[in-house]
What we know:
By secondary structure, this protein is mainly beta. It has one domain. 7% of the residues lie in helices and 55% in strands. The protein contains 1 helix and 5 strands. It has a 5-stranded antiparallel β-sheet with strand order 1-2-3-4-5, with no helix packed on it. The longest helix has 5 residues, at 2-6.
Amino acid sequence: MKLAQTMGSTSGGTPGGFTNGAGIWLSEETVDGKTLIFRGMWDKITATTCRWSQASSSDGGKSWQDNWVMQWTRTA
C-alpha cells in the first residue's frame, strides 16, 4: 500500500524538466520489493495542442506501459 499512500504526497517535488520539446518527470517507488519508475510527460506541443501521459516501468525504464493519456486541443 506504500504506493497508494504516497501518490498524494507533496514531499518536495519530482525531478524533471523540458528538453527538445518534451517535459519529462520521473519518480521511483518500491512496491512489494520491486522498484517501479513512474513517468509523467508533456509532449507533442504546438500552438493549439499538447499531450500529457503517465506511464510506469518495471524494467528500469527499458519499456513503458501508458496508464493515462490526455490529448489537449485549444478551442478558442
